[in-house]
Design a protein that fits this description.
By secondary structure, this protein is of the alpha/beta class. It contains 6 helices and 7 strands. The chain is globular and about 40 Å long. About 9% of the residues have low confidence. This is Methyltransferase type 11.
C-alpha cells in the first residue's frame, strides 16, 4: 500500500470504529441496563466532574446518619461516604447485580469500612420500609434503570421527612439524564430543589424531602 493510501485507510478504520461505538451507545440507551460486571474496571476510572469530594459537598453526610446508595457498583463512592458518617452511621449499598455486591463486600472489608452494608436489591422495589434513610444518592445510575419513574417513587418513599436526595450525572455516559427534565420529575414527587453544582454536561443536584409537600402515597 502506498504512503498516500495509508492515512486514508487509517481514517476509514477509525470512522468504522467510531460508528460502531455510537451504534452500541444508542442501543444501550434505548435498552437500559447496568454496566456488566465484566466491564467493572471502567467504573473505577477517574471522574473529573462527579468527584467523590464534590458528592460529599452536596450530600453533606453527617456522623450517625443512615444513608442509602443505589447502584454502588464496585464502590467508587461508597467508602468515602461511609467514613463521613462514622462512627455510628451506616451506608446501605443496593445493587441489582450479585457480582457487584460481592465485589463491594470484599472491597469494604479490605478497606476497613465496617459500616457498609452491601445488599442485593432492585431500585424499583427497595427492600426497606418508609422513611428509613436520612439521605440517598445515586451517581451515573438512574438512566441504567428500565423504570426510572418507579425508582424515583421508591427513593421518595424511603427518605424520611427532611431527608436529602442527590443525583449525579455526567457525559459521555450513554444513559445520561438531563438536569431540567430530572428536576421536573423529582419535584412532582414533593421534593424541593436545593441546588446544583457542575454544568449541563456533568452535575450533582440535591433535593430535600418535606413532609408538608409530599403527595399522598
Amino acid at each position: 500500500m502506498s504512503s498516500r493510501r495509508l492515512p486514508r485507510a487509517i481514517a476509514a478504520l477509525l470512522g468504522v470504529v467510531l460508528l460502531a461505538g455510537l451504534g452500541y451507545a444508542l442501543r444501550w440507551r434505548s435498552n437500559p441496563s447496568p454496566c456488566p460486571y465484566a466491564q467493572r474496571h471502567a467504573i473505577d476510572l477517574p471522574r473529573p466532574v462527579v468527584t467523590r469530594s464534590r458528592l460529599c459537598d452536596v450530600l453533606e453526610p453527617r456522623p450517625g446518619e443512615r444513608l442509602l446508595e443505589v447502584g454502588p457498583g464496585t464502590g467508587y463512592y461508597t467508602g468515602t461516604v461511609a467514613r463521613a458518617v462514622e462512627p455510628s452511621g451506616t451506608v446501605h449499598a443496593v445493587d441489582v447485580q450479585s457480582e457487584m455486591v460481592e465485589h463491594l463486600r470484599t472491597r469494604t472489608r479490605a478497606d476497613g469500612d465496617s459500616n457498609v452494608e452491601p445488599v442485593r436489591g432492585d431500585a424499583r422495589a427497595l427492600p426497606y420500609p418508609d422513611d428509613a434513610f436520612d439521605a440517598a444518592y445515586l451517581v451515573l445510575v438512574l438512566g441504567e434503570i428500565p423504570d426510572q419513574e418507579r425508582t424515583l417513587d421508591e427513593l421518595e418513599r424511603v427518605l424520611e421527612p427532611g431527608g436529602r436526595l442527590v443525583v449525579g450525572e455526567s457525559l459521555p455516559d450513554p444513559h445520561f439524564v438531563g438536569f431540567e427534565r430530572l428536576r421536573r420529575r423529582v419535584e412532582r414527587r414533593g421534593l424541593t430543589f436545593d441546588g446544583r453544582v457542575g454544568t449541563r454536561a456533568g452535575y450533582f443536584v440535591r433535593f430535600d424531602a418535606s413532609a408538608a409537600e409530599r403527595p399522598p402515597r
